[in-house]
Amino acid sequence: MSIKADNITWKIGRKTILDGVSLEAPPGRMLGLLGPNGSGKTSLLRLLAGLKRPHSGRVTLDRSDIGKISRRSIARRIAFVEQHATTNANLKVVDVVKLGRFPHRSIFSSWTKVDEEAVESALARAGMAEKRDDRWQNLSGGEKQRTHIARALAQSPQELILDEPTNHLDIQHQIGLMRLVSGLPITSIVALHDLNHAAMFCDELVIMQQGRIVASGAPQDVLSEDLLRDVFSVEARIEASPYHSRPQIHYLK
Ligand SMILES: Nc1ncnc2c1ncn2[C@@H]1O[C@H](COP(=O)(O)OP(=O)(O)OP(=O)(O)O)[C@@H](O)[C@H]1O
């Protein structure tokens, strides 16, 4: 059991943004959330993280309604890196990452070895150890993104939710991040635009269009030339990669 959305509907004013969405994140696996701009990915992730409440249906965490779980308890379990995550104070990288330990500590507890190890391991895994003493404001866009991912990892979550985590990263760090997340023994839900990266690393895919889920399952079962045409409005040919056997999409000019 992990995060589950059960027939959720969510509106802004009179506009329906999510319409009857149901999904269950496979425990310990990486779920890729795909769809064109405006299809509802960010909205869905915010509901799954408990930041917004659905107008109907419900989101559950291990069968409990997430709306009834305290913010602190949620933060001990779920780490969420939003698309335009920012940090206001001009902290050092290591201090931003230390914020990830906040949900696990009380005001009376001192900094422990477990906290220290979680921060050091997160800095190393996100490739930010060498920049640990740099000021947040002086980082490049990709380094800021990797710092937020390190902060999320330092949170030692059981569920990791990432909204387009690779969008500022160079190709080495895009692949590195996808490899890192797919190798973690935790449940991850990741909104992505790169369909080839999603096919290569995700265990399951969910495809959204206009606030609805239109396909879900293993990459090789979900990605088809018809789906790319109907949902993403692109012409493409798909074959099994000879290198990793996952679907490989060749876009046509
Ligand atoms: N505050 C808002 N007011 C009105 N409409 C909104 C608001 N926030 C989001 N929407 C609408 O909700 C829809 C879904 O947006 P959302 O950001 O969830 O899509 P997305 O799939 O994450 O898009 P992208 O790939 O561009 O990041 C869009 O049509 C968007 O215009």
UniProtKB/TrEMBL annotation:
Keywords: ATP-binding, Nucleotide-binding, Transport. It holds the Pfam family ABC_tran. The keyword Glycoprotein does not apply. Residues 3-235 form the ABC transporter domain. GO terms for molecular function: ATP binding; ATP hydrolysis activity. It comes from the Bacteria. InterPro entries: AAA+_ATPase (IPR003593), ABC_transporter-like_ATP-bd (IPR003439), P-loop_NTPase (IPR027417). The keyword Protein biosynthesis does not apply. Belongs to the ABC transporter superfamily. This is ABC transporter ATP-binding protein. It comes from Rhizobium fabae.
